[in-house]
């Protein structure tokens, strides 16, 4: 048995939960907006909301990415592999939560404004979540250990 083994089941379970939490509001938002339940019809307000959302998403992504890199560097200094995995699980969870929050916000804004760009953002966030599914290459790169295996 390898010295660097990760039980990937909790990561996969957590990931699938966040995918569902991201997908369900997207479907609800699409149904509501396609049936005409949008609340804000003023094009000026819709345009402002769009640009505020884009700027907010960009700033949030920049901040989260920087924080994530700093946390990964601090993980590399931990003495035991189990501690590294426990801390990485927290970082992984934070990354998923931020992605889901952005997706749900996009869904809410889609219902409010009925602008298709917001449902496209939510769909993009869902695709990013799917790409982030746990795999050995990501764990090896982010934990800086090429000997990682999965249970």
TrEMBL record:
The chain crosses the membrane at residues 16-33, 48-65, 96-112, 118-135. Keywords: Membrane, Transmembrane, Transmembrane helix. This is Uncharacterized protein. The lineage of its organism: Bacteria, Pseudomonadati, Bacteroidota, Chitinophagia, Chitinophagales.
């Amino acid at each position: 048995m390898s010295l660097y083994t990760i039980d990937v089941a909790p990561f996969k379970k957590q990931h699938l939960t966040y995918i569902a939490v991201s997908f369900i509001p997207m479907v609800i938002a699409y149904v509501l907006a396609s049936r005409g339940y949008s609340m804000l019809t003023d094009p000026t307000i819709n345009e402002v909301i769009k640009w505020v959302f884009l700027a907010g998403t960009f700033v949030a992504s920049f901040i989260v990415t920087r924080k994530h890199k700093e946390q990964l560097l601090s993980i590399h200094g931990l003495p035991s592999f189990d501690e590294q995995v426990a801390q990485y699980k927290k970082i992984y969870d934070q990354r998923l939560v931020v992605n889901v929050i952005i997706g749900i916000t996009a869904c809410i804004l889609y219902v409010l404004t009925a602008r298709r760009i917001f449902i496209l953002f939510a769909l993009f966030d869902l695709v990013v979540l799917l790409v982030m599914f746990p795999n050995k290459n990501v764990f090896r790169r982010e934990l800086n250990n090429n000997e990682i295996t999965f249970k």
